[in-house]
Automatic annotation (TrEMBL):
Organism from which the protein derives: Hordeum vulgare subsp. vulgare (Domesticated barley)
Recorded superkingdom: Eukaryota
Pfam families to which the protein is assigned, alphabetical: PDZ_6, Trypsin_2
Originating gene: LOC123398375
Residues covered by region (Disordered): 1-51, 73-96
Gene3D superfamilies in the record: 2.30.42.10
Biased composition range(s): Basic and acidic residues: 7-28
Domain (PDZ) ranges: 405-444
SUPFAM superfamilies on file: PDZ domain-like, Trypsin-like serine proteases
Name recorded for this polypeptide: PDZ domain-containing protein
Length: 511
């Protein structure tokens, strides 16, 4: 009787392809190989799914588009067996029984002495048993939000599955300057090359950001920081070994970095999704110094950035029952399917870079070896995320329903020179209306993509048409804004001037 064999969906698809190929003629096979060589599966424009390059040994993390109608096939999980099987001839471990002393023997001193010895041996063995790796949940106080299941009952099972599905891709990194430790961050395995036995890690730029020992919180009041690109960086594997890496790319504006490491065995890659919704249940994953997984529950939120926060940030609104986790900068924000929706940027203010920005930046890096962005010289707040009372007032009084409020204008910038001031509203760029800062970031990257496809380079100027509502004079105007295509961090310079006395004042204010 033939034995039934279970075939996974991907294996079945592969078997069908091989069967079809066997029926092709030699000429048809040659044409198929030639077509495959001419059209490798590499990204063509921002937003396309990028899985692998034309090199068959290099694998990338998967980016899934925001297609809510797309059905996904569930794949069976394959678990590697690492424990050796026991031979039937080996003796079994004895069960442990707690001794007790019958009442009729309680007065016998010799038996009482032996009973105390037996009791001590019992407690020694019991303590040894409860410290088995399978029993440590009885005494280990886990900092995971999933340790108190009654708080997250509606999502408990998918949350556990999602965390475990992603865990193998989350690692710990440490950086050093000489013999002095600099920072620790989490990171994500992002790409692997099985032929060269190397893998890439995506992590936060905080890993190599210089700290001021006299003012450790000063970096929170700065737009850009100093990054120590020559710092030594190590990845810490779960078997307590470590390996040095080298910096491939640092994106200062979006504040993430790519490192390459040598690995002895394949690493697990992630699946990213571009579907990120406000109010969505998510988990934040990182690792501590003991390499234990750290998990906290929260929701995706849009907030008005503080004065020194980037406009592209999205926020992790932490569940009050979850602890503030340390060293998870560079860790993953995942949905309840285990797909990455963002990279933790700053665990203190709990911000993250959304996955669709990461996708477009990495598309650029593969195609053009850089991750550019237009420097506008301004910082914004989205009208859409204001209180409805404020929105209604602006709509009623000034016919403004959406757009970006200019919060800051960099001193000496082209935006300042064409008359854009704090409080003005930018309604459109190049004729396209924009309602959120996230939409703006996507638009800026798309403009850069067209810029590079025209054969132009970094650090060149580009003109952008902006429609402005002047909040002081209550009128609209359209101006050409000259911006810079750059992959550096944009620094919004505060507008100041030295006060040398009333007669020497260099700034006059309109009434």
């Amino acid at each position: 009787m033939p034995r039934a064999v279970r075939i996974r969906g991907d294996e079945l698809e592969k078997t069908e392809r091989e069967a079809k190929r066997r029926n092709l003629t030699e000429k048809e096979k040659e044409e198929e190989e030639e077509s495959t060589a001419l059209h490798p599966t590499s990204p063509r424009s921002p937003g396309e799914v990028a899985i692998r390059t034309s090199h068959p040994k290099i694998l990338f993390a998967v980016f899934e588009p925001d297609d809510r109608t797309q059905l996904e096939a569930k794949q069976d999980r394959v678990v590697e067996s690492v424990a050796e099987e026991e031979s039937s001839s080996e003796p079994l471990s004895p069960p442990i029984y707690e001794p007790y002393l019958p009442e009729e023997l309680a007065d016998d001193p010799d038996i009482l002495h032996d009973f105390k010895d037996a009791k001590a041996r019992y407690y020694k063995e019991r303590n040894r048993r409860i410290r088995l790796f399978t029993m440590d949940h009885h005494y280990y106080k886990a900092p995971s939000c999933l340790f108190n299941p009654h708080l997250l009952l509606p999502i408990l099972e998918p949350a556990r599955d999602a965390a475990l599905r992603t865990a193998k891709s989350v690692i710990l990194l440490s950086s050093f300057v000489g013999d002095d430790p600099l920072n620790k961050c989490s990171g994500l395995w992002f790409q692997r090359d099985d032929q060269s036995k190397t893998a890439l890690v995506l992590t936060s730029a905080q890993l190599i950001r210089e700290k001021n020992p006299k003012k450790p919180s000063e970096w929170r009041q700065q737009w850009t920081g100093k990054y120590l690109r020559d710092a030594e960086v190590f990845v810490h594997f779960l078997d307590n070994t470590a390996a040095p890496g080298r910096l491939l790319y640092l994106q200062e504006h979006y504040e993430f970095a790519l490192y390459e490491f040598e690995v002895d065995k394949p690493v697990q890659l992630l699946t990213f999704t571009e579907r990120v919704c406000c109010g969505q249940d998510v988990l934040r994953l990182g690792r501590d110094e003991s390499l234990d997984l750290r998990i906290s529950h929260g929701m995706v939120a849009h907030k008005i950035p503080s004065r020194h926060e980037r406009c592209h940030y999205m926020y992790f609104s932490r569940d009050p029952s979850s602890r503030l986790l340390l060293q998870d900068d560079g860790g993953a924000i995942i949905d309840l399917e285990g797909k990455v929706v963002g990279l933790v940027n700053n665990h203190i203010v709990e911000t993250f870079v959304p996955s669709f920005i990461l996708h477009r930046c990495l598309d650029f890096w593969r195609r053009f070896n850089c991750m550019p962005r237009l420097h506008l010289g301004m910082a914004f707040t989205s009208i859409k995320h204001l209180d409805p009372i404020c929105i209604e007032r602006m709509t009623h009084d000034h016919n403004i329903e959406s757009g970006l409020i200019v919060e800051q204008v960099s001193k000496g910038s082209n935006a300042e020179k064409i008359g854009i001031r704090e409080g003005d509203v930018i309604e459109s760029f190049n004729g396209k209306y924009v309602s959120t800062t996230i939409e703006l970031e996507q638009m800026l990257i798309d403009i850069c993509w067209d810029h590079f496809h025209q054969g132009k380079c970094l650090y060149e100027e580009k003109d952008v048409s902006v429609k402005i509502f002047d909040a002081i004079k209550h009128r609209r105007r359209t101006r050409n804004l000259t911006v810079i295509v750059s992959d550096l961090g944009e620094d919004i310079v505060k507008c100041t001037y030295p006060f040398m006395g009333k007669e020497a004042m260099s700034v006059s204010y309109d009434s």
